[in-house]
Amino acid sequence: MQINLTSDTATKPTGAMLKAMFSAEVGDDVFRQDPTVNQLETVAAERFGMEAALFCPSGTMTNQLAIKCHTVALDEVIAEEKSHIYQYEGGVYSMLSSVSLNLIKGERGKILPGQVAAAVKPRYDWLPISKLLVIENTCNKGGGSIYTIDEARTLVQEARSSGLAVHLDGARLFNALVETKESPTEWGNLFDTISICLSKGLGAPVGSLLLGPQELIDRARRYRKVIGGGMRQAGYLAAAGIYALDHHVERLADDNARARRLAEALAPLPFVAAVEKTETNICIFHLAGELMAADFLETLAEHGIQAVAFGPQMVRFTTHLGVTDEMVDRVIEVLQGVS
Length: 339
What we know:
By secondary structure, this protein is an alpha/beta fold. It has 2 domains: 13-247, Aspartate Aminotransferase, domain 2 (3-Layer(aba) Sandwich); 251-337, Aspartate Aminotransferase, domain 1 (Alpha-Beta Complex), CATH 3.90.1150.10. It contains 14 helices and 13 strands. The strands form 3 sheets. The chain has a 7-stranded mixed beta sheet, with helices on both faces. The longest helix is centred in the C-terminal third of the chain and has 15 residues, at 252-266. The mean pLDDT is 97. Belongs to the threonine aldolase family. Keywords: Lyase, Pyridoxal phosphate.
């Protein structure tokens, strides 16, 4: 049995999703003539109560298009230091938008009340202009930590009182919503723009969506084209996104529960120093003594289990569509047998 806990990007389309893809009606999306892409963008925008949406190849692209649309050169973006836009997007904000990042040290990737207002810079010629707040829900490097809508609202109010726009990196937002029972429209009403990923826990092979006002999405569409993100018969991929939104959202609660099972099994093991709070489908833990992540992962690989190092003595397990209860049982069995 091969078990892939590296990332929820390891998901593969189900048979039913593939059937939907192969039966999709397609056209040329650069000319806005792909009916399935148009349908996906409409469905997503309506679900969040927002005006428009743009289908893109990746979450990095949707996040960076949002930054580009909300800022001009020499502005700055405020974000938590564990945020995806800082950690995993190649520093492209400096190249594409000519902006800087003002990083906040929060808790588990979450910005705390008062920190946004404190981070906004005064207006001096020698300082960048604070223009945009980005928060990530759930936060990957925060162990899948959740913002509740009330927590987010506090930060958004701070941002707006200082004249900032607000963007939500919601790549794994649905993993949070199945826990909090909040609605997508509550989040859509709060933020200027939202990015959601279709190719993580939702199980589509490719794609993310940028949601926002029509005027901003029109500008983002033009930027998408000039950086090479225009796609032609993308309806085959969009069909997978529609299927995912229709069929794979509620099942994310199963992924979250499986990650919590792994966290509970890890906690008492002698080679584990600590397990970070596990709220959704990401479980991060710290190894004890002199056990290094590279050696530990090698041991797991000998048993057909893949995971990733998050530091010299940190490991991340991520559950997803391709991880079953039987697989979790097997992982726990192997962990309990590690000496």
